[in-house]
Amino acid sequence: MSWSLWIIINIMILVSMFFYLNHKIDRSLQIHQIVAKARKELQGILVELNHATERNVALVEDRIHQLKKSLEAVDKRLAVLHREMEKKFPATYNSLAQKQETSMAQQESQEEKQKEFSKADVLELYNKGISPSLIAAKLGTTIGEVELIISLQDRKERELYNHEHSKQG
What we know:
mainly alpha; 4 helices; 2 domains
């Protein structure tokens, strides 16, 4: 009886191992199927994105081409207008052109003056404890420019301090 019991136990173990391994194989195949399906979907999305990108690039290139044509037409019209103005009103046209050039030069000099005063004013306001963002807003410049001026001044002061201490030591 012991042999028959032993054979039955072995058969039961083999059947349970069969079902266990069959379940493991099915799970691994399902995972591979899920991964394959996900890859297929991702490839489809990539293809759609590539088509949309190509379409958008084509639209942008078309707009650029249209803008270039429009600019060429405007340039031609301006050239014709300038010639007509010179023919009809040569003295008036020339004086207007000179006034425009002088006003542009004045604007450029004003912008340069604004940048010149800002270095001393930035340092003065910073030493009073005002933040760089408020200084920039008050002086009509960028925060980056204010921070650059401050950092350059701090660097000069550190170099001067280090130089003085190296002489003393």
